[in-house]
Amino acid sequence: MARYLAGRLAGVVLILFLVCLFTFVIFFTLSPDPAVMICGKTCTPDRIDQIRDVLGLNQPFLTQFTGFLGGIFAGRDYGHGANLVHCAAPCLGYSFQTNQSVMDMVVERLPVSATVAIGAAVLWLLFGILAGLLSAVKEGTWWDRTAMGLALGGSSIPNYVLALALQYVLVVRLQVLPFPQAVAFGDDPVVWFQSYLMPWIVLATGYACLYARLTRANVIDTLAENFMRTARSKGLSPALTMRRHALRPALTPIATIFGMDFAALLGGALITETVFGLNGVGKMAADSIAKNDQPVIMAVTLLAAFFVVIGNVVVDLVYTRLDPRVRITAR
Amino acid sequence: MSDLLVVEDLTVTFPTTRGPVEVVKGVSFTVGRDETVGIVGESGSGKSMTSLAIMGLLPKGARTRGSVRLDGTELLGRPERELRRLRGDQLSMIFQDPLSSLNPYYTVGLQIEEMYRAHRDKSRRNARQVAVEALAQVGLPEPERRVDHYPHQFSGGQRQRVMIAMALVCGPKLLIADEPTTALDVTVQAQILRLLADLRRESGTGMVFITHDLAVISSIATRVLVLRRGEQVEYGTAEQVFAEPRHDYTRMLLDSIPRIDDEVSA
């Protein structure tokens, strides 16, 4: 087990390193000179040279890359003499746009993305799995067909369309919700809840529809298994037969997919956050890409990769608990 | 003493888009207490449908006619609730493929225990003890340890032993074995057959043994029913059926058994 974990963690580190390298290469070779961008409209060649010097942009690629990596683990210094700025580890540099520490930006915005992801996950698991279960048990009935038709439709609506439609109906027309605003839970739980409700619904809809269809398919497959016939032949109660023998095998694969989906969402829900003006990691990614804010792009890319890779490891570990046939054997 | 199981004119019908199809057409036979009756036929002959009809486990939409009496109690048309109380307790069944017939997510112990607890004693500790004893009875070594293992940790023959242990844990009056050895190696087949025969004799359970293999039937059953396309083509003692098959189909099935003195033709 310890060997297995060590191996997996080594893999995680390797993947994150490669993501770093690729992202860095792409921006090093493809993007316009950041010094010019930072300098802005009132700019002189001297000023540009100075910025290049402070950020180390005139250094060779390898030096810049190791500087970036070193900053994450040990912190780094920008500039020298009177201009020296120390950036403590873990250092992701400073935004070209706002001069804010990128690490501070991430720390500030991650809770927003996490709130969006967790709330949406609760909604989509609840409604997706319930609808899928009902459809499977009532396979071929009026309910099943309606629910699955809706699920197909729901998973094909783009998030931004749903977001705008919801805002128009709930906020503008019916006025049952206030316009979303950035409020901390501690300040006003009611407004906080109202502000997050629409993002949750929008984000959850697509997933709920997908999970409903998955759950239905898995439960129907499981109900047709030979061991279900055995369970019935043993004279167990229908409730026990369903709960113990059908649900666990049917829902275990869903747990895997959920782990992956949720991890990916922690890296930011780009469209939903942008449409609702939520200052999460997703909106940060959108803004940084629009303005070619390289340190921020690096950070959001790394963060998303980090969550996906860690999510993978967690899912694999959880799976060994859920399915006894999967056992860890260190190679 | 009256017969344990009396099946009279059993007919099973499935609705299809082209109208109802009879898969079992008026089958009648009896199983005495302490007796094994074999049902033989090729695939699609209706032998499995006959056994599922007795268990009340036919797929949705299937309709039955006739009569199935276990110890004088009519089973056909009985409410599901009452059938459930009988299933596993008065009559139980073992299936062809022991791997897919056991739930891979639970230990064999739990799967034996839940059956015992459904019909007998609800307490967990007693049920566990019963499960260990049941595994010991079917000749599984180290039952105290094996009881906590999962189905995939057993070999094919051992899994079928687990199924047999489970089927017999409540001491049923009737055991239906639907091709219990078909998925197994020949040597393991022989062991399982002997085990079934021994346990049946010790417990005095009546058994319906279903197979497509006449050679297997000859070693275990006292009476034989031959089915073909849902119809009963032959019914008699094993000696009768084997010595003087009255129907061409039975003769054909008998001829299909390879014999050790067969000449190998080029």
Give a brief rundown of this model.
Chain A is mainly α and 331 residues long. Helix content of chain A is 73%, strand content 2%. Chain A has helices at residues 2-30, 34-39, 45-55, 61-74, 102-137, 142-154, 159-173, 189-223, 226-233, 238-266, 270-275, 281-290, 294-322; strands spanning 76-78, 85-87.
Structural overview:
- The complex is a heterodimer of chains A (331) and B (266).
- Chain A is 73% helix and 2% strand.
- The mean pLDDT of chain A is 88.
- Chain A is globular.
- The longest helix of chain A has 36 residues, at 102-137.
- With 331 residues, chain A is an all-alpha fold.
- Chain B is α/β, with parallel strands linked by helices.
- Chain B has two domains: 1-90 and 173-257, Rossmann fold, CATH 3.40.50.300; 99-171, no CATH class.
- Chain B has a six-stranded mixed sheet, with helices on both faces. In chain B, strands 2-1-4-5 form a four-stranded antiparallel sheet, covered by helices on one side.
- In chain B, β4 (63-70) and β5 (73-74) form a beta hairpin.
- Classes of the chains: A mainly alpha (331), B alpha/beta (266).
- Chains A and B meet through α9 and α10 of A and α2 and α4 of B.
